User: Fold this.
Amino acid sequence: MADVAKLAGVSAVTVSRALRHPRMVSAALRHRVDAAVSELAYVPDVAASRLASARTHTIGVIVSSLTNGVFADYLRAVHDTLLPAGFQVVVFSSRYSLTEEENVIATLIGQHPEAILIAGIDQTPHARRLLERSGVPVVQTFELTDDPIDINVGLSQRQGGYEATRFLIAGGHRRIGYIAARLDARAHARMAGYNRAMEEAKLPTDGLVATTPRPSSVSAGGELIGTILDRDAELEALFCCDDNLALGALFECQRRGIAVPDRISIVGFNDLEFAACAHPPITSVATPRYEMGRLASEIVMKIIETGERPDNPRIDVGFAIRERGSTRAIPQPRARRALSE
Amino acid sequence: MADVAKLAGVSAVTVSRALRHPRMVSAALRHRVDAAVSELAYVPDVAASRLASARTHTIGVIVSSLTNGVFADYLRAVHDTLLPAGFQVVVFSSRYSLTEEENVIATLIGQHPEAILIAGIDQTPHARRLLERSGVPVVQTFELTDDPIDINVGLSQRQGGYEATRFLIAGGHRRIGYIAARLDARAHARMAGYNRAMEEAKLPTDGLVATTPRPSSVSAGGELIGTILDRDAELEALFCCDDNLALGALFECQRRGIAVPDRISIVGFNDLEFAACAHPPITSVATPRYEMGRLASEIVMKIIETGERPDNPRIDVGFAIRERGSTRAIPQPRARRALSE
DNA sequence: TTGAAAGCGGTACCAG
DNA sequence: CTGGTACCGCTTTCAA
Assistant:
């Protein structure tokens, strides 16, 4: 900054002001400073700035994965909302590890963001303390909890799993399977929903569930439905923990010559972009991820700028089942099984 | 830090040392400090730390999109390589905008990373200056250039497009189309490769190319091939700028009852995870993205730790065509057309 | 092995 | 509207 000041023939303080509060400085000086800045390709040191001013204009965002399609719309919304307002967004990934999440939270807090958005509600006690102690607004997203750290904008993953399964049951299916990968908290919640729905309907689930600790992928979907089909060729419907698995399951059915939805109905979760244009299009549980990112961002902006907190610290953004060609109701229950006997 | 020092009954300097250089303080003190740190959930202020020490242990990574699958393996490699070595990775997205890229570079440089990895070679002149002036190692990735800012680890996207098209030509196809979305530098390079291959083979491309400025997606792939098919029902093969488009094109063919690969061969680019397990599996140009991320990370680590720079500042990681079920050679050239006449 | 003092690069407060 | 000064929180000398 001293160099810029010298080049512009002013004091360092004036450079700082010309950059931070351009209107407090005369136009002539402002131009001289701007010229010097661009001449020297000067970039202010955020560390020094933060130390001196206590403001960072930074919002920290933690997601489970940078590359899972689920976080795409969410992150897009966060950027769309916060960047125009002059905030800087720093994104970290916990890579589906609670330990790495702890580290990432510490790293983030060390940067003194003005608010934190974190995906999920299953932080470790230590992570919770770090977040509580940080003294900035914290929004937990994607899931819903009765005991938020601060603010919570999400949906009930369990209810989503429950209703997806209910949807298949209502369609007359009885042998309904469930597949999941990367058993994170949200996958568990959806599975709990599946189990509850099956139990309520007094349907058995033995041999109808397949999971893997590996990350979710299209190929995993194929392998998991394969596991179930190898055990039980009578599978009638499948609820997949996410759309990647659903797509993989669809491909595997096609490879095995099993008609979807005629012989097996498939339901995914999240309604990723490709679900609607697969062949057949995949029925899925749509989650309003863009909306969630926008809401969370707006809430923290409001708190930062006005100190005003939302009336309700817990916002349910809900979900919706998008019925498409990968599912079909069975006209008369058990008709298919009768046929094959 | 003062609070921690007081609680541990030592001076602030000692706290700093216990945290940074644990072996320089006695074990007893170290434990007292650790206890106080965790008692108070203390997190050191990176801004102050950076200001005092000039080291940030941070590597800045800029990609075009956080959510395009292409960057997934790359980012995974970067994290896998740098985190265990004690570096912090901060990832920014330019969201396919050169303007936003400039901003993001400035933001990043303001944080004083110890090295910068940036996807692509098409930075604006201003962005280039910022990077050159930053004084830290800069690695441009994904593409290859004769005029790198500093170090370059990538592959020739143009050559990839060229060889993918050559592959289809060698398969006896004549009416070969090209589709692309989000016309960034890499899409243009691949298209240049396609054009060159077609020209060399004296094949016409009129009406066989469809593009859109929208982001790439599976649905866009369906629409783009639809555009071509509506103009020219004789399309024999299609080179898609990426695998998402290829998948969408495949679905659209299935919807229209066009057999793949019997009537149309489809080639994608990047060999994303789903390509190999689609039905039929999609032929694609595999790019070693994990390898690229690992190499780039190792190079900057070496420079930071030993000052030793690679002999060759330009590393070609290459690519490979993975031939799969979505393409089929036509036994005798033009046989198909003869048949339909 | 521990403590005291200086200073990293800015910004806020006050004076002129 | 512009400049001087103190100080943000920590780490690196240097001395004890």
In short: Residues 177 and 205 of chain A are 7 Å apart (CA to CA). Chain A touches chain B through 51 residues (CB under 8 Å). The domain at 56-155+289-310 of chain A is CATH 3.40.50.2300 (Rossmann fold). The two ends of chain A are 84 Å apart (CA to CA).
